[in-house]
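Example record

One chain of 173 residues, shown exactly as stored in the release files.
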Amino acid sequence: MRRAVIGILMLTALLGACSKPFGGPSSSDSSAPIPGKDVEKTINDKLPPQLHGVQKAGNARCPAEIRLGKGKTAECTMIADGQKVNIKVAQDGSGYKVSLDQAVVSMTVLEQNLASTYHQQFSFYCGGASLRVVNPGAKIQCQGTPTGGGKTRLFDVTIQDTSGKYESAEHTS
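Predicted structure tokens for this chain:
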């Protein structure tokens, strides 16, 4: 039986808000370089509170100077529970905005959401790591054990975007 289910991880459901402008400082000249330290502070202040289920996040790293323009972005990184997360910096009017460039997925939250999605008919195990940082399109394979006993089944979970929207289906050979 192959059944596709679409869901949104509670961990990352609020992360779409991170792509909204945070009022990052810049001069009125949008071609002026932005000090990387200013962007790091914005990332460290604004993104970690949005990462529900993450124990420790911060330590942003950016180039010394960031130059943005129409259609031009820059990359920074941040550490979430010991894993590197890519952050995108883009121009926003005369300022800039920061957003996740990858999905940050709590395995505990994913397992709970899958159990709920499949009406508690299975208990799920999606691997030993408590957190995974993945690019959109990545697949995570989870084991579903029927709650009433029976043979464990494999489920494929495809992360669709940086907000954590996913699709799951029973694995077929």
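Notes: The chain has two domains: 5-11+105-170, 17-101.
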